[in-house]
Design goal:
alpha+beta, Jelly Rolls, 8-stranded antiparallel β-sheet, 7 helices, about 20% strand, iron, metal-binding, Phytanoyl-CoA dioxygenase, Phytyl_CoA_dOase-like
Length: about 300
């Protein structure tokens, strides 16, 4: 049986709002399997040779070391900013200190690959008008209890830039997401007026770190007011589709409950993805970038 894509009404809603929630996209069995696999990954990774790289979406402190920049074809672990004391030592077990795991789960982990490269996701990408959908990063976002950091208002295409912008995020809730544990919130329709005005790049085109540059002739969007954001109910198993230009954020998790989610992004392969982007996929033997082709 051929998997169906989005209905015309769902496509219309995505184009209008810039995001779309699909409750029950993952069965309870798949949610449990991905949650258990996440727990296993967190338990099994070693601190022995880990550089204790922290992750932040704050532009003044964004991660940019070699461990981060060479993670496109690996499964690596990035810590929460608040997981360390003043001496740089972990204040909790490593399983409760990780911000995210990335960025090649869609290639290197069978459980997560099964919920990335499949007929349903291909059909959704077709529904959204993609000609050559490329998967270029995948992550488990942990949003740990008590220390899960705030993610300020941002647009995904700033970090995964194509010309023209084309990124779309697939975001699967592996636990119930609520106001208490840092659920996503969105500014509906902001993808229509908030143009991509900057991009995160590798500093000097090297492995020296990352920086942000402004795009010529594009005015930075205004910062939305708090009341412009909406936070829809997002139970475990929900898939959220997120337009790359949509302004969205999440608050810190100060509750006693985590907020695990699995997310990957796709871009249009027919558009330019250059070597300034922080995420660079190793080349194939033929010389082209070794992206995962969703339609292959």
């Amino acid at each position: 049986m051929v998997a169906s894509g989005l209905t015309p009404e769902q496509v219309e809603q995505f184009n209008r709002d810039g995001f779309l929630l699909l409750p029950g996209e993952l069965s309870p069995e798949r949610v449990k399997a991905l949650y258990n696999e996440t727990s296993k990954l967190l338990s099994d990774f070693s601190l022995a040779d880990h550089p204790l790289t922290k992750f932040s979406t704050d532009e003044t402190a964004h991660v940019g070391d070699d461990y981060f920049l060479t993670s496109s074809d690996k499964v690596r672990f990035f810590f929460e900013q608040d997981a360390f004391d003043d001496k740089g030592e972990l204040t909790r077990p490593k399983e409760k200190a990780i911000n995210k795991i990335g960025h090649a789960l869609h290639n290197l982990n069978d459980e997560f690959r099964a919920d990335t490269v499949n007929d349903r996701n291909r059909a959704i990408a077709h529904s959204l008008g993609f000609k050559d959908a490329l998967v270029l990063q995948s992550m488990i976002i942990c949003k740990q209890p008590e220390i899960g950091g705030k993610v300020p208002s941002h647009q995904d295409s700033v970090f995964l830039y194509t010309d023209p912008p084309s990124a779309v995020g697939y975001w699967y809730a592996l636990e119930d997401c609520t106001a208490e544990n840092g659920a996503l919130s969105f500014v509906p329709g902001s993808h229509k007026w908030a143009k991509i005005s900057k991009r995160m790049i590798r500093a000097d085109g090297t492995k020296a770190g990352t920086t942000f540059i402004k795009l010529d002739g594009v005015e930075a969007p205004r910062e939305p007011e708090d009341e412009e954001f909406v936070m829809p109910a997002c139970p475990a198993g929900t898939l959220v589709l997120i337009h790359g230009s949509l302004l969205h954020k999440s608050e810190p998790n100060r509750s006693q409950k985590s907020r695990y989610a699995y997310t990957f992004h796709m871009i249009e392969g027919e558009y330019k993805y250059d070597n300034l982007n922080w995420l660079q996929v190793p080349p194939t033997e033929e010389g082209g970038a070794n992206f995962t082709h969703l339609f292959a």
